[in-house]
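Could someone model nicotinamide-adenine-dinucleotide with this protein?
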Amino acid sequence: MHQIKLTTPTGDTDIDVGELLSVRLPGLDPSPILLVDENVLSRHNDLFSQYPCIEVPSGEGNKTLQTVEYIYRELVKLEVDRSSLLVGVGGGLTTDVAGFVASTYLREVRFGFISTTLLGQVDASIGGKNGVNLDGYKNMIGTIRQPSFVWCDLSLLKSLARKEYVSGIAEIIKYGAIRDVGFLQYLKDHMSGLLELDIGVLEKVVTTSATIKVDVVRKDEKESDLRKILNFGHTIGHAIEREKKVLHGEAVAIGMVMAAKLSQTMDLISGSDVDLISDLVSAAGLPAHMELDPAVIFQNIRKDKKKSGESIHFILLEGLGNAVVKSIPLSELKKILHDLC
Ligand SMILES: NC(=O)c1ccc[n+]([C@@H]2O[C@H](COP(=O)([O-])OP(=O)(O)OC[C@H]3O[C@@H](n4cnc5c(N)ncnc54)[C@H](O)[C@@H]3O)[C@@H](O)[C@H]2O)c1
Ligand SMILES: [Zn+2]
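Reply:
Sure, complex below.
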C-alpha cells in the first residue's frame, strides 16, 4: 500500500492506494454512513450493505441538485448529525456529489471517499472540488472542501466497464505530459500491464498520478494559476464532449494530441514528442484524432468558462513534462483549429 498526504489551507487528506482497502471500513470511528454509486453497491454488496447506505444514481444526468436534495432527506431520516462520518463510494460522479452533500449538510459533516474508478482514483477524488451540474452545465454549483481520506481501492477496478477503465488512462498520460517525462517513459514500457490491471503497475501508476495531482493542488488549491495545467487537453476535449458521444477520457485524449501538435507548431516541442503522446494514446486504445468541424469546436471553446475576454488560457507543452499556460487570442485560435482539425 502507498500513502500520500495532501495538505491545504482548507484541510488535509490522507490518500491510500492499494488492494482490498474497503475491508478496513469496520475500523472507522464513528461507523460510517455510505453514499454509494448504485452499480458499485450491486456489484460489491458484500463489502458495503452492512452499513447504512444511500444509493447515488449513476449517469451524469443525475449529478443534480435534485439528487443532492434527495440525499439530504435520507440523511435526515438516518438522523445524521455533525458527529457523523459520511463516505462517498463510487467514481467521480458519486464523490463529487458526496463531497458537496457533506460540505453543505449541517454546514459540514466529516467525510471521506472510497474511489472506485480509474479516473476517480487518479483525478476526481483528489483536490477537494465537489459539486453538481445545473441545467446541463458542468459543475456550476460546488464547494472546495478536502475529504479526510481517500482510499483508492485497486481491487474494485476489476468490475469497471472496460471503456470506463481505458478512459481513465487519458488522465494518467496527461500527468506525464504536464509534469513528468520519466513517467511517460514508464507508461510506454508498461502500457500492456496497465491494460491487464497488473497490480504492481496499477499501484505505481495510480500513486504517481495522485502524487502529481496532490503536488499541483497543494501549491494552488483554488486554481488561480498552476492548477490550470491540469486542464491540458481539456479545452478542446470539453468542446468535443459537447458535440460527440464520447467518454471524457476519449475527448481528452484527442484534445491532448491536438494541444501537443499546437505546441509543436509554436516550436515548443518536437515532432517526436508529439508522436510519443499520440502513440501512448493509441497504445491505451484511446482515439488520437477524430473528424471534427473546426467552426463548431471554436464556438464550443468560446462558451468555455476558462475564456477570459477576447483570449483564452490554453495549456501547452514547453518540452515534455513541462506544461505552460499561454493566452491565445480567439481570432488566432480560430485559424489554428482550422489547421489542426
Ligand atoms: N472533482 C474533480 O476534481 C473532478 C475531476 C475530474 C472529473 N470529475 C467528475 O467525475 C465524473 C466522472 O467520473 P467517473 O469517470 O469516475 O464516472 P462515474 O462516477 O460516472 O462512473 C462511471 C460508471 O462506472 C460505474 N462504476 C463506478 N465504479 C464502478 C466499479 N468499481 N465497478 C463497476 N461499475 C462502476 C458507475 O456506476 C458509472 O456507470 C464527472 O462528473 C466529472 O465532472 C471531477
Ligand atoms: Zn479530465
